Amino acid sequence: MLVINYKSFPIFSSSMVSVSTCSKTVHIYLLLIWLSSVTSSAELQRFRQPVKPDGSLSFLVVGDWGRKGLFNQSKVSFQMGLLGQKLDIDFVISTGDNFYEDGLTGVDDPAFTESFTSIYTAPSLQKQWYNEFVEFFFVDTTPFVDKYFTDPGDDTYDWRGVYPREEYLLNLLQDVDAALKKSTATWKIVVGHHTIQSAGHHGVTEELVQQLVPILEENSVDMYINGHDHCLEHISDSSNSQIQYLTSGGGSKAWRGDVHWWDPEELKLYYDGQGFMSLQMTREEAHIAFYDISGNILHTWNISKELHSAT
Asked: Which of 20, 29, 199, 278 fits a 20 to 30 Å CA distance from 249?
């Protein structure tokens, strides 16, 4: 059994996250629009999905994609459909920045169809979302980033429900910590939009390193999955935590050549093109794979839960 924990976000939460509440329900992705309008004291919502008869679970991860099919978004979608059928996936995770350049104006914005429903049309991607051996924790990482408050530039942010920010973040961190401690799942996976460890354009998000990582390490989180950097990337933490940092932000426009030096012992993959990631999991093992727009396998990584070591 897989369990997903997340907090609902503004305007789009009922039409894009709920599985049963309205006619615009989406059954492909759990679309987290990484904004903040609900205080972090709101109850974590949970969805459950049974595993396959053989006890396994398969899913895809893609982020930073919504460009009306441009910048190879359609090619990524095509390969996702092929692999989704091959792996008989159970669901798809989006890691955020779903609609460029400025998000959606509302539930009737035509960009929703142009960048989402008319793009991810493969039968294998039409999966319902309910989502225990694996448990996911979706964290709203945007309010952690200081520059969005101190130097927003030309960007405009809706911080309703976030102020006072310090209180919001304290409550959010307490909720994440409590949910992780309560979990009895064999695998714990945290999903956020922003990078924690990355050799890409945005690099390390120090606010998350300082505030979120200690909670992840204390609660033996296995993986942190994110987007934000427009690349595919795998960093294996060399500390005692052994967290796998997985970036799947290659859903459309990529940033060629925008990479910084990283310890090669930790940087297992950096690919500055488009693509996506898959995970196949059982109670004992996890198999991670990254793919380019032609469906070529760029990198694989296996984790044995019994040994908590990778090969």
From this structure: 20
